[in-house]
TrEMBL record:
Protein name: Ethylmalonyl-CoA decarboxylase
Location of this chain's protein in the cell: Cytoplasm, Cytosol
InterPro entries assigned to the protein according to its UniProt record, in alphabetical order: Enoyl-CoA_hyd/isom_CS (IPR018376), Enoyl-CoA_hydra/iso (IPR001753)
Catalytic activity: (2R)-ethylmalonyl-CoA + H(+) = butanoyl-CoA + CO2; (2S)-ethylmalonyl-CoA + H(+) = butanoyl-CoA + CO2; (S)-methylmalonyl-CoA + H(+) = propanoyl-CoA + CO2
Family: Belongs to the enoyl-CoA hydratase/isomerase family.
Organism: Solea senegalensis (Senegalese sole)
GO BP term (any one): fatty acid beta-oxidation
Its EC number(s): 4.1.1.94
Matching Pfam families: ECH_1 (PF00378)
Source organism phylogeny: Eukaryota, Metazoa, Chordata, Craniata, Vertebrata
Keyword Magnesium: no
Record's function text: Decarboxylates ethylmalonyl-CoA, a potentially toxic metabolite, to form butyryl-CoA, suggesting it might be involved in metabolite proofreading. Acts preferentially on (S)-ethylmalonyl-CoA but also has some activity on the (R)-isomer. Also has methylmalonyl-CoA decarboxylase activity at lower level.
UniProt keyword annotations, A-Z: Cytoplasm, Lyase
Length: 229
């Protein structure tokens, strides 16, 4: 899974007109973390840290893609799978889904960068509770602490306008409507604001602004005298 994921991220880094990404699992599980059969063979500290470096690099690149990403969590996201959800910009949870940082039960802490990202998403107090307590985060708790950005309804409920994936596509559609260069610029500006010290973020923002100012979308908007009602 880890190598496959890195290869997909490399492909996505070359997707020049991408605007949005939905990451979902298979069957009833979003991701159950490391392959326990495989990690038993690399249970020494050196190999563990190599795996950690590989996955931290992969997931950091995933989060830094110039597009808006959503983790569609169906079933369980456990351990590294929970960390994987934090490597997307947003998380949508199905009604019976659970995000659980089970690391403590494995005698571990997050190793794929999920600890650092979790603090930035839910704050240090909630991160400490989720990691220290290996708490099961259901959609209600996820929305309450800001780990979940929305819930997708089950097909048999009246509110469900389609499958989980169709609902996620509709949810994401609101944020990626528009020309790819503009959506990509939006993500780049937010990324720099999220990761850089203010003075550097301002420089990055100015640079990104320069790529869209006077661009096709900007000139078209100016020509149309659009009103934002
Ligand atoms: C940095 C964190 C990272 C690390 O330390 O390297 C980790 O992520 S540690 C791993 C954390 N994940 C787990 O501990 C998950 C363990 N699995 C489960 O809790 C359950 O399997 C499940 C995911 C909740 C699913 O339960 P259920 O629906 O009851 O199905 P099964 O338990 O029968 O599983 C089906 C099948 O899948 C195999 N499986 C599940 N998870 C893993 C895994 N992480 N690695 C390897 N194999 C996994 C499970 O063994 C079953 O296989 P078969 O017995 O061959 O059918």
């Amino acid at each position: 899974m880890m190598v496959d994921l890195e290869e997909r991220v490399s492909e996505l880094e070359n997707w020049t007109d991408g605007k949005g990404l939905i990451l979902c699992g298979a069957a009833e599980t979003f991701c159950s973390g490391s392959d326990l059969n495989a990690v038993r063979a690399i249970s020494n500290p050196q190999d563990g840290m190599k795996m950690s470096m590989f996955m931290q690099n992969t997931l950091t690149r995933l989060l830094r893609l110039p597009l808006i990403s959503v983790a569609l969590v169906e079933g369980r996201a456990l351990g590294g799978g929970a960390e994987l959800t934090t490597a997307c910009d947003f998380r949508l949870m199905a009604s019976d889904s659970v995000i659980q940082f089970v690391h403590k039960h494995m005698g571990l802490v997050p190793g794929w960068g999920g600890g650092a990202r979790l603090v930035r998403i839910v704050g240090s107090q909630n991160a400490l509770k989720l990691l220290g307590g290996a708490l099961k985060v259901d959609p209600k708790l996820g929305l309450q602490i800001g780990l979940a950005d929305g819930v997708v309804e089950d097909a048999q409920t009246v509110e469900a306008p389609g499958s989980h994936l169709e609902q996620a596509e509709k949810w994401l559609g609101t944020y990626i409507k528009g020309p790819a260069p503009v959506i990509q610029a939006v993500k780049k500006v937010v990324l720099s604001g999220r990761e850089l010290p203010l003075s550097e973020a301002l420089k990055t923002e100015m640079g990104v602004f320069g790529t869209v100012w006077g661009g096709p979308a900007n000139l078209q908007a100016l020509a149309s005298k659009s009103k934002h009602k």
